[in-house]
Automatic annotation (TrEMBL):
Biased composition, class Polar residues, residue ranges: 408-423
Keywords of the record: Membrane, Transmembrane, Transmembrane helix
Positions of the UniProt region annotated as Disordered: 404-435
Species name: Massilia soli
InterPro entries: Phage/GTA_portal, Portal_HK97
Protein name according to UniProt: Phage portal protein
Pfam families, per the entry: Phage_portal
């Protein structure tokens, strides 16, 4: 009986939970760049799948394993992902109605779920932040549209889905999504019921993770540098050293040296070291300055910011950038145009195609005016021009300007006594005659 129990070939030992987890990820090892030793199945574990599960699949040259969890321990990566996800999550989403070649703001029922409350337990800001963070860390962000019933075209809400619970697969020419919640049975959804935000390198099903694809070495180096510095200070900030002398030590000198070393070790590596017999310390390990730990950490900050498209000054790295003046303002505007916009456009296209797949009457668009606003003086100078300064034709009213500044209309405002476009400026002689 014991021999039968220990015979691994006679009895197939499988894990139902692990098998279900692996069966939901068809071709996952191939897309991760691993060489599979066998086919995915619900009852066996291949070598590549085991390395992925243990975190050994994405190990950097420095020896640190780079995953979504370990990357968040690097302050630069955390700040970049927090900044991008937070900025997108807090942007208001406007719903507009097409009227020929014009468009007008629409009062639509979907505005509430896109801007305030996505579903039970999820505010819209938290839901958008969760999806964008999943996209930045795993390569794909997923969400599910909530409908009152299966065959309904109406959407009553939406919720984000953890990346490890969603597995896209092809059913003929159709892409479907297998959802495997941890506490519920798995189910399959059509593309129309899923929010899918892919990243660079999208193959029609999934996208590679920016963390483990482009930023793996930079984040791995940062993790190793942090670990080295932590171990250095935990050891009393002492370097490894050796004792050297040109003479031969006698027995008494060796006993004194041994006692001095033991006393220093018992004191946590601190305290004076009594040397005799011409002994002098010689450093064995490379110090932090020679290893350029500080320069390495500064470089990894710039490298991580470059991958996420975030200006370094926006995560507190102002080594080569001034924190004042119009230069930072222009870089902030560039952050909206060249970093956020590459996320905002796919979000708008995904929402439009899923909420209004047939009728093109309505569409959504992020309102980025608040992030692109200039300083107070520049805005007020622009408003003066918009109201018709120096006899120019006005193209805005005072109430429209107040709306841009989040101020209510004011019927008591009066226009100044300046000339308008219909009454051109008078010549100097005409002004004297009028006086």
């Amino acid at each position: 009986m014991p021999g039968k129990l220990l015979n691994l070939k006679a009895i197939q030992h499988t894990s139902r939970v692990l098998g279900s987890w692996l069966s939901a990820r068809n071709g996952g090892t191939e897309r991760a760049g691993m060489v599979a030793l066998g086919e995915n199945s619900s009852g066996s574990l291949t070598m590549s799948e085991l390395t992925n599960l243990l975190g050994a699949a994405h190990r950097s040259s420095s020896g640190a394993a780079v995953t979504a969890d370990t990357a968040m321990r690097v302050s630069a990566a955390y700040a970049c992902m927090s900044l991008v996800a937070g900025a997108i999550a807090t942007l208001p989403i406007g719903i507009y109605e097409r009227k020929g070649n014009e468009r007008d703001s629409a009062d639509h029922e979907y505005w509430w779920m896109l801007n305030e409350k996505a579903s039970d337990g999820w505010t819209s800001s938290a839901a958008w932040e969760s999806i964008i963070l999943s996209k930045l860390s795993h390569g794909d962000g997923f969400g599910e549209w909530v409908r009152p019933r299966f065959s309904s075209n109406r959407v009553t809400g939406w919720k984000p889905l953890p990346r490890h619970t969603v597995q896209p697969f092809k059913d003929g020419d159709t892409v479907r999504y297998r959802i495997t919640p941890g506490d519920k049975p798995s189910y399959v959804l059509a593309r129309e019921d899923i929010i899918h935000l892919p990243s660079l390198g999208f193959d029609g099903l999934t996208s590679p993770s920016p963390l483990t694809y482009a930023a793996m070495e930079a984040i791995g180096t940062a993790l190793s540098a942090q670990e080295h510095i932590g171990q250095f200070f935990s050891g009393g900030a002492n370097f490894d050293y050796a004792l050297k002398t040109d003479s031969k030590l006698d027995k008494t000198q060796l006993e004194q040296l041994k006692a001095s070393l033991l006393a220093r070790a018992q004191n946590g590596g601190r305290g004076p070291l009594i040397l005799g017999g011409g002994l002098t310390p010689a450093q064995v390990s490379v110090n932090s300055k020679d290893a350029e730990i500080l320069a390495t950490r500064l470089f990894t900050v710039e490298e991580i910011c470059r991958i996420f498209g975030v200006p370094p000054f926006m995560v507190g790295h102002t080594d080569k950038t001034t924190s004042w003046g119009s230069g930072v303002e222009n870089m902030g505007i560039g952050f909206v145009r060249y970093t956020l916009q590459r996320h905002l456009t796919p979000i708008a296209q995904e929402v439009n195609s899923k909420l209004w797949p047939v009728r093109e009457r309505f569409f959504v668009e992020h309102i980025t005016a608040a992030l692109e606003r200039g300083d107070l003086k520049a805005r007020y100078d622009a408003y003066r021009t918009a109201l018709g300064r120096s006899g120019e034709m006005p193209f805005m009213t005072a109430d429209e300007i107040r709306r841009r500044e989040n101020m209510p209309p004011n019927t008591n405002l009066t226009m100044n006594g300046g000339t308008s476009a219909e009454q051109p400026d008078q010549a100097p002689g005409e002004q004297q005659e009028a006086a």
